[in-house]
Specification:
This protein has seven helices and eight strands. By secondary structure, the protein is an alpha/beta fold. Helix 2 links the parallel strand 1 and strand 2. Bound molecules: 6-phosphogluconic acid.
Length: 203
């Protein structure tokens, strides 16, 4: 499955099939300027969805690097839970974790050229984090350095994970994650452990 029409149709069908409020974590990155604007134009009942962020940069919510700012612009009608980025990193992570539902219905993840997802980067100590559902880091190799991110346990506990991959340069990474069982990219760790994964390839 790939392409924006599939993406929007699939999202609408998931929300319609949910009896209560559907919970979805959005990704940062270029999904905000490719797929999400098309969702914004759909006939989604926005009151039936509560949106979170699978990671966030610890900058003011109106800062150009803020995922919340980009997602707010892309999805102006969304009920979107911002991270309290004014708090110290560990406190911001713990405070956001307290607002998460026990199990998310859906998590969207972009895919970095190094195979990172959310703000979980190759070789980073956070990949071994099992206690926290949301963690903080101040050494992100992708700027800005200070972030909060869902941990692997949160990503793999979600009912569904959708990978929203933008740009043909990611094709080799997608191939490795999907077909190399020895691949240790964070995206591969998620894909192998998730309850359900779907790929939307925008290239
Ligand atoms: C972030 C994003 C990050 C992003 C990937 C892919 O806050 O930086 O959440 O994980 O999804 O880096 O970004 P692109 O889709 O822009 O390549």
């Amino acid at each position: 499955m790939s392409g924006s029409v599939d993406f929007v149709a699939a999202f609408l069908s998931r929300v319609r099939a949910c009896s209560g409020v559907f919970t979805c974590a959005l990704t940062g990155g270029s999904a905000a300027t490719t797929l999400y604007p098309r969702l914004a134009q759909s006939e989604l009942d926005w009151s039936r969805v509560r949106f979170f962020l699978s990671d966030e940069r610890l900058v003011p919510l109106d800062h150009p690097d803020s995922n919340y700012r980009a997602l707010r612009q892309a999805l102006p009608r969304a009920v979107l839970e911002p991270v309290r980025t004014e708090l110290p990193p560990a406190e911001a992570a713990a405070e956001y974790a307290r607002r998460l539902p026990p199990t998310l219905d859906l998590v969207h993840l972009g895919l970095g050229p190094d195979g990172h997802v959310a703000s979980l980067f190759p070789g980073h100590a956070l990949l071994a984090e099992r206690a926290l559902t949301v963690a903080s880091l101040t050494d992100s190799p992708k700027p800005p350095p200070a972030r909060v991110t869902f941990t692997l346990s949160t990503l793999t506990a979600a009912r569904e994970v959708w990978f929203l991959v933008v740009g043909a340069s990611k094709r080799p990474v997608v191939e490795a994650v999907q077909h190399d069982l020895t691949c240790s990219f964070p995206a591969a760790l998620v894909a192998r452990a998730a309850r359900s994964t779907t790929w939307f390839l925008e290239y």
